[in-house]
Structure formats: C-alpha cells, structure tokens
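User: Fold this, then the next.

Assistant: Folding the first:
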Amino acid sequence: MMKKYQVMMIAGLMVSACATTPNDPNKQAKDKAAMGAMLGAVAGAVIGYNSDSNRERGLARGLALGAVAGGVAGAGVGSYMDKQQAEFNQQLASERQSSAVEIQRLQNENLKITMNSEVSFDSGSSMMKPAFKQTLQKVANILRRYPRTTLRIVGYTDSRGSEAFNVRLSEARAKSVAWALQDFGVAHARISIEGRGEANPRDTNATAAGRQLNRRVEMFIQPNNDIQS
C-alpha cells in the first residue's frame, strides 16, 4: 500500500485544487477543472504506483501526468473562452476605449458584448450605421474562429415611445445585428434574437445619460457543452 505521506500529498492536492476565489463568476467552471485535476492525479498515482517496478517513481509520475490530463479535460471550456475573450479585447480595443462596446465575462464562462445604440443605429431606426458594420465584421471574424459557441442577441430601448413600438424596434435592431453577422459568415444556426424594448434598464430613464445607457444591443456568447479542450 502507498505510504502515509504519499496519501497525505494526494489529499493536500485535493484540498488545494478545490479552493477558488470567493465571488468568482466562473467558480463552477474552475471547480470543474480543479476536480478533474484532482481525480486525474489520484487515478494516475494509483496506476503509476501499481505498474512501475520503482513504486516511488511510478507514484510521482502518475500523480503529475494524471493531474495534467484531468485538469486539461476539466478546464477546456475556460481555456476556450479565455482565448476568445482575449481576441475580442484586442480586436475591439478602439471601440472599448470610446465606450461603443463593452466586453464582460459572466457566469458559466459566458461572454457578454454590449453595443451602444448611439454608435450603431440612428434614433428610432433599425438601419445600421456603416461604421458599426466594421465593428461587427471584427466580431464575426472571431466568432468564425471559435465555432463551438452559440449567440443570443438581445435588443433594448429607453422608455420613450410606446411599449409596443419599443419592443418592435429592439427586436428589429437585434435582427439587423444577426443579419450582419450572417453576412460576414457566422452560421445562422448559431444565432437567436430577442427584443425586450424598455425592460431591464441599466440606468434611469429620467436623464439623457441614463437613456443612452439603456439603448443598447447585447450579445451573449455561450460555450457548447461538448468542449473538452
């Protein structure tokens, strides 16, 4: 049987692997990676210990290889979305600097791209401004390189105008974004749209600054469940 200190070493790995930062929005995904590393380490250690004539060497080798293999399998989603987010941050740097676009990492490794309607659509219109199409082409180029995601595009307005008009306008704007992405090569099957009108305001509709924040299109990029590496 494995010696006491060897068992304690594996137990220590298990405890440290499961430790994550409080309030981490991606705690679930990181716990999954840690659990994969933990289980891989234990399994690798047992196999290595039993299969190598030098038990100490087999234990160490199995522990290391098992942890790496298990961690890679568990961390696949996080790594995939990390790389995609890094490309968005780089390619949309000028849009982020001018507050035309915001990029956020959400729960379960989802990405959220918020597009300011002031720079994307004229007031009361779903006709996209030419300059905004250039931004969407950058987005589409990245999305094509990361096909293992689905997209949900949600449009919003401020509270001016009737509720019914705002819902129609927000949906039309979301649809315009979806069409542009498809024109740039993103598969139709990956995209869904929704218009929520004046719902879920980011700020008060009592001020011009607040209404500007509320007029927006949000894109949620969700990783597929089958991502492993």
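Now the next one, as you asked:
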Amino acid sequence: MPVVPALDLRFPEEDSSVAHIPHNIEAEQALLGAILFDNAAYERLSDQLTARHFYEPFHARLFASMETHIRKGQLAEPIVLAEQFKRDPSFEELGGLRYLADLVDRAPPAANAPDFARLVYELSLRRELIRIGGDIAVGANQSDPDRTARDQIESAEQQLYTLAETGAPTSGLMTFDVALRGAVEMAAEAFGRDGGLSGISTGLIDLDQRLGGLHGSDLLILAARPSMGKTALAANIAFNVAKSYAWEPQPDGSKKTVNGGVVAFFSLEMSAEQLAMRLLADVSGVSSDRLRKGEIDASEFGRVRDAAMDIQSAPLFIDATGGISISKLTARARRLKRQAGLDLIVVDYLQLVTAGEGSRVDNRVQEVSMITQGLKALAKELSVPVIALAQLSRQVETREDKRPQLSDLRESGSIEQDADVVMFIYREAYYKGRAEPREGSPEHLAWQEDMDRIHNLAEVIIGKQRHGPIGTVKLHFNADLTKFSNLAREGRFEPH
C-alpha cells in the first residue's frame, strides 16, 4: 500500500518567516484523525489539552467542536462537522469534507492519540515561551515611568510560573478507593506525629488541639481590634513553625518537610526590622520596648546577641512591601516556593493588600472579596496554609460584651465566606484597664483583683471552622515581650 504524504496546510500567502515557530501540523492532523475515526480516543487524552494549544487556527476550531459534540454524548464525525463548518473559509480552502475524510483515512491507532496530544501540547508551551520572551523584550525597551523594571520582572515571573504550572498533571476524577487511601495516609501521618496533629504545629498546644494544626490549602483569618495582639500572635506562630523546621531528602533530590516549615511573612504594616525586634524579645526574654529604646544592660545585650545567633538560620522570609497587590504577593510566594520551599504564608494584614492597578472594582467590598478569593486560591495552588490578619469594625466597642463575632469583620461577607477558619483575639484586661475606678474607692480594690486575675490572660475565639468545632482557647500573653504562650492550667477549653 503506497504511503500517502501528509497534507500541506501552508497557504500560498503564508510568510515563510513563521517556519521557525515550533509546531507540527502532521501531529495535529494525526490527533484529530484518531478522534474522528474513534471518538473514544478523546477519553484517553489528558484534560490539559485544549483547543488553544493547536497551531493551525482551523484545527483549534475543529478540536473545540469535536470536544463539544463528544461531551454532549453526540457523534463527532466528518459529515456532521462538515455541516457546521460549511461557511468557514479556512475549511473550504483546505478541501472541505474531503479534508476531514483524509484525516480519517490517515488516522493512526487510537492508542497513539495521547502521544500526539503530548507533542501538540509541548509545542504549544514552546510557542508560549517565545511569546513571553518577546513581551519581556518589548517591555524592557519601552520607557514607561509607571512601570519599573522590578514590576516587569515580577510580571515575567508570574507569567512563567503560570506557564510552568499548566504543565503539571491534574488529578481530574478519581475513584473512591484512591481518595480513601489518601485519607488513610493523612490519618497515619497524624497518628505518627507527636500530639497526633495532621497539620503543621503552631507551637501553642491548646490551639493545635482545637485546629488539628495548620492544614495545607486552608485560609485562616485572624481578626481583632487594634492593640489586641494579632501581629504578635501571627509572628509567634510563624516563628514557632520556622524554628522547628526539619526536612528529609527525596529520591528526586527535592526536600520533604517533616516538621515545622519554611514561612513567608508579608508585613504590610511593620518593617522587617520591627518584626525581627519582636522575635528577638520573644527569644531573649528582654522587653521589646526596652530593646527599641536601648534601655538594656550588658548582660541583657549578651542574651539578645545569643538569641540572634540561635535564630538567624530559621527559614523565615519577611516581605515588608507596603500596599502590596495580591498579584505581586502571589508571584513572590510562588517564587519562594520554587527557590526555597514554602509551608506557611502570613499576611499582616488583609485590609492593606490592594487589588492592583488595572483591576476593575466598584467598591471596597468587591476589592476585599477579590483579595480573599486570591489568597484562598493561592493556598490551594501552593498547598500551604495562609494566615491573613484582619481588622474588626468599631461596632465591637459599642457592645457591653466586647468579645468579637463574625459580623464584626469589615467587609465580612467575602472574608467569612472564603475563610476555612476565622479566629478572634480578645483580651479582657485591655478593656478593664481603661475602666479603672478612682484609686482608694471600694470599687478600685475589686477592680485590682480582677486585673490581677486577667492581666496575662488572652482568648482566641474560633468563630468558624470547616473541619472541626468552634470554641474558645485561652492563652498566656506577656505584654512586655508581645508573646503568646501556653496557659499553664487545667480547663483551657470553653466549648460554645
């Protein structure tokens, strides 16, 4: 049987300069022919491949139409498709129904369809790399005062990361036994860890017991009124995770985190030095206020120096860019994941993140909704927990019981909806201290007794948790060191 040459889809007017662009018309023809001959071949393909990955525009339209027919349970064959494309100039120029018939005649076995699909997809990624490279070159040559070189680098990184991630295999539908094996493995890991945690330990025993640790792909909101200590608690958790980091090598050369983790802390309100000062106070036991003012003696400075030596290697990365956009935050987290690994992201705080230039939002509620959705998507994409701090509205102050609740969240609808966990910090001593009676009065003695009882007491109120119970966890709070720690007493839980 004579070998039939591949169809030539180069149009007479086509510029020969495009010949160097990565593409393989024969592979596209073979893939389309295999599906036209046997529609079941479509089910063998990875769900990565879409119509936009075809080089020849008509092939892209043909694949999209075949895909639509097959998904609807309809037959995708030459006569049916020819009717749909009879007004398509490219279809007529290629030969019409005869072209589709030739694709079927030259179709390879259906078993080979995935090989041709991988080739089409690979060449599409190469073309996209060329396009991104061209965009980078054009952008670098333009003198746009509103777009710095750093902005262009971050935009390029984001495009390249997105392109790289599109090549990762997707799970699609899985059978229940596969999902069940994953669940049993998670339970086995939890059983094998100290304390039985299935997630990353916060370093706070009671909080871990209530949350089960910090879980990958979860968005946790930590909200409070100003001066309640939300930055302090977030910093304590971040440092606890970073200082307990341990990993083991994998056969492919990668690192698998076995304890703690690499942490990215986006500090939009405080500088990196201020945050480091708090952590130094935490570890050294020297008041952060006295550290900042330099009111320490030689022995205390020695403790600070020793503490700095102990913690300097902790994998805690701080980004103190004020007013960072959600796209830049995402790009930097992706970059860190690739370069050093990433196990936890902390954002301080949510309302200081912006939607970015060019974002079409009509009001602040829409903008916050876009940001929370972006953080949740980032948590899922990188499979890491994201802790985002949030401010509460002033309506808390107008109530007699000032314990926060979900409705106190600013722009609460989107935050409450997107979050997997919502936690509030409440310190009764903060409010009690501002209601001091006249000294020497009978009320002052009772007030002093109450203050002694609650002075170092803090409550973390879990107002929402998708995977477990809500309730209140009591912690010890040291205002001098801005440090939260475990409360050394029984009966820590107060379930709601």
